[in-house]
Amino acid sequence: MNAPHITAPAIEVPDTLARILADKYEEVRERAAATPLSEMERQARSAPKPRDFIGDLCHAVADGRVGLIAEIKRASPSGGLIRDPFEPASLAEAYCEGGATCLSVLTDEPYFQGRPEHLKAARAACPLPVLRKDFMVHPWQVFEARAMGADCILLIMAALADETAQELEDIARSLDMAVLVEVHDRAELDRALGLETRLVGVNNRNLRTLQTDLATSEELCPLIPADRIPVAESGIRTPEDVRRMAAVGARCILVGEHLMRQPDVAKAAHALVHAL
Hints:
Layout: H1 15-34, H2 37-45, H3 53-62, E1 67-72, E2 75-76, E3 80-81, H4 88-98, E4 102-106, H5 109-112, H6 116-125, E5 130-133, H7 139-147, E6 152-156, H8 162-174, E7 178-183, H9 186-192, E8 199-203, H10 215-220, E9 229-233, H11 239-247, E10 252-255, H12 257-260, H13 265-273
Parallel strand pairs: 1-4, 1-10, 4-5, 5-6, 6-7, 7-8, 8-9, 9-10
Antiparallel strand pairs: 2-3
Helix pairs in contact: 2-7, 4-6, 4-13, 7-8
């Protein structure tokens, strides 16, 4: 069977992201040729029921804790190799012990050394809901995410045209999955608010330079409507950083590299969860 027609988004994307997406389109073409869309959808719809990603974040905040989405990743374009040895199941257990609310697991291999098996192992090791952290560009990937056990997907507005973002969200919702939509500037935020998801992530990392600045969340989070849930992403390392984010409305955070570099990730997660 021929691979699905997958084309680049009809929007301008930052240099680093453009390189990643070019490889991702090719990867999805190859993987979708091996497993047809109809078969991947069948696997997705027969998978066990998703865990409540958004509900668990809301409960954490209501209890006075930080809603921590703790990330599991071995490497990144900006940080290189981050953790070795790398044991997703043990890390998931440690995050759970440290009070994390949800997990985020990288499944992109070329740039993050991630694999679907990492997500499967992490989810099986603990009861926390799991976000598939990858560059979603085609419906096939959404079905694949549910089939591998993901409870939530990431939609990066810098990588997607509005129509594609809407299509991917609709599929995720049909599978009872949550969606975290990610933005980096005011224009992307305005576009993201056209989606139905309540989870709006503000990435403090500039995708062109890969530098982080918490001022990005300080600028954008106050503009997020009260019926949405701001999630501050990237560059958060200390309890003081957590309090800076909470001061502008982001009581949910996504933290990866800082936690991955700690010898005791449970202790590091606990310090962020109870920073307020």
